[in-house]
Amino acid sequence: MKCIYLVMFRKKVGIIGLGSWGKNIYRNFNHFNVVELVYDNDFKNLNFNSIEKNKITKNIDDIFLSKTIDSVIIASPAVTHKDYIIKSLKNNKNVFVEKPFCLTLKESREIEKVANEVNKIIFTGHLLQYHNAFKKLKHNIKIGKIGNLNVIKANRLNFGTVRKIESVLYDLASHDLSMILSIIGNFPVKVDVNAVFKNSKTIADYINIILHFEKDLIAILNMDWISPYKEHRFSVFGSKGSLIFDDTRDWKNKLIFNPSYLNKNNDIVYKPNFSIAVPEEEPLKKEIESFLKCVEYDDIPITDIKEAMNVQIVLDMIENKIIKKYGLNNGFY
């Protein structure tokens, strides 16, 4: 008989924000029996079957000021993140915050200043860092399976929510920037950007980004929330082949190795693709379990405040490029 062990966590959390993604976050935290209170300023979001009524509060300060809640989980709109993070830290709470971390580099530095004054964990929801396919992709890069890296490509396209405050950059690019920086380990030296403003004069709906790194390595990102088809594909092209992480495919085919490569004459040497086995586990559950372990055992997260700041710095580089190129005079665009 196979034994299943459920990790037991003692420290309780309060959740702020129960929109479509917040409900998934609640479900996974509730799986570990750690949810003390939940809050959403739209009471309609609190009316779903799986939530226990005694856990609902209509006063957000019940979470911040609670003596029994150790961590605040922030899944509210991005424009609220900075204030909620700082208030949590000042009330001696650890923080799990959904992406984007916040909406400006200035905001992130305000958070960093407070974080340096308290000894609390800030965990950013860069979910794909905890995805088994991405972890296996990074492992194969590390052992030299595809040789020297040349190009990273990230396509995140969908017919999704068109937001009114943050652009597609903050909504979609954070995940891919987190993965790119995790692989390369340093900042781009140059940024090129193209943007399409279809539904607003200031908020981009489609962005093409080219990040230039040292040693002629480039990363190309395409982010689009008005695409008629869905594509979540992240690929790394090297001197000995390529790795393709496609999160829209079934688990048997989420990670593909393409051993075809360019030889010294720039001729393509074709070889057949094959899939790399990846354990099937819900990434969000793994991410939340990782957060709870960090809190329980006082560990440093993969996606800590330093990692969040690194992503925010590159977001700011891209944002400034767009503002300058398209003559915009406001942030968040």
CATH topology of the largest domain: Dihydrodipicolinate Reductase, domain 2
Strand order of the largest sheet: 7-8-9-6-10-11-12-15
CATH architecture verdict of the largest domain: 2-Layer Sandwich
Query: What structural class do you assign from the helix and strand content?
Result: alpha/beta
Kindly, what is the distance between the CA atoms of the first and last residues, rounded to a whole number of angstroms? 56 Å
Q: What are the secondary-structure elements, in order, as H or E?
A: EHEHEHEHEHEHEEEEEEEEEHH
Strand portion: 25-35%
Query: What sort of overall outline do the alpha carbons produce when their principal axes are compared?
Result: globular
CATH hierarchy class name of the largest domain:
Alpha Beta
Count every beta strand, where a strand is a DSSP E run of 2 or more residues: 15
Please tell me the total number of domains. Answer: 2
Mind telling me the CATH superfamily name of the largest domain? Answer: Dihydrodipicolinate Reductase, domain 2
Q: Characterize the largest beta sheet: strand count, sense, and whether it forms a barrel.
A: 8 strands, mixed
Radius of gyration: 21 Å
Alpha plus pi helix count: 8
Helix percent band: 25-40%
What is the mean predicted local confidence, pLDDT?
A: 93
- What are the segments in which pLDDT stays under 50 over at least 5 consecutive residues? 1-5
